[in-house]
Design goal:
Layout lengths: L3 H30 L10 H11 L8 E8 L1 H8 L1 H16 L7 E5 L3 E7 L6 H14 L5 E7 L7 H17 L4 E3 L2 H22 L4
Length: 209
């Protein structure tokens, strides 16, 4: 007959195994939650987490955010979504080469590839042109541009800075340029244009024309 103490030991051992498996699954879930499923890169949640951990009042102005915008819909119409997705994964592997241990790369849905990069106040033309050349060279159908935003002392949250770099990329794309450093003037013009489109849409919806 198995003693009660032996049964307790067996139950305790089983419980430990179950707990280890549960912890492992929780870690995997947490890792997946912070990862973009398509590219394998970090997502917006992880980017914001790292921004909060590493960017502070002492180093903020030494960093910049660079956004690489790719016209995915244009590519998909020509080569299909499967090859477009392959292109995005290849782009991710290229951009990873331009990121150091103190910098962060993420893929953010509806924005593009975003890099938090040490700038030291220097213009980043050389590495951006290199990255754009390699990205574009992988697929003739690709249309890609970059936007740069240099962080300021009052940039406490990452989301507005990410959006500003995105506006720079969109502006470059529309103007047929490779990249654009987003200024207050460019951002204001983009926002005013967006408001105008909303006003016109509302007027049409209300049948004012």
């Amino acid at each position: 007959i198995i003693s009660f103490s032996v049964v307790l030991v067996l139950l305790f051992s089983i419980l430990l195994v179950v707990l280890r498996k549960l912890r492992k699954r929780l870690k995997m879930y947490e890792a997946d939650r912070m990862k973009d499923s398509l590219t394998g890169l970090a997502n917006a949640d992880y980017f914001e987490q790292q921004f909060a951990m590493h960017i502070n009042d002492n180093n903020r102005i030494l960093y910049s955010i660079c956004c690489f915008y790719i016209d995915i819909d244009h590519m998909a119409r020509i080569i299909g979504y499967e090859k477009t997705n392959e292109y995005l994964r290849h782009t991710a592997s290229i951009l990873e080469e331009y990121v150091s241990e103190t910098e962060f790369l993420a893929y953010i849905t509806n924005i593009g590839f975003v890099i938090l990069r040490w700038s030291g106040g220097d213009v980043q033309e050389e590495w951006i042109l290199s990255a754009l050349h390699r990205i574009s060279g992988f697929a003739e159908e690709s249309r890609v541009s970059a936007g740069i935003y240099y962080l300021r002392e009052n940039d406490k949250e990452p989301a507005p800075a990410i959006f500003t770099s995105y506006v720079g990329a969109i502006t470059a794309y529309r103007n047929g340029e490779k990249y654009c450093i987003c200024t207050d003037k460019i951002l204001r013009s983009y926002l005013e244009e967006g408001q105008l489109r909303e006003d016109l849409k509302g007027a049409f919806d209300r049948k004012e024309f």
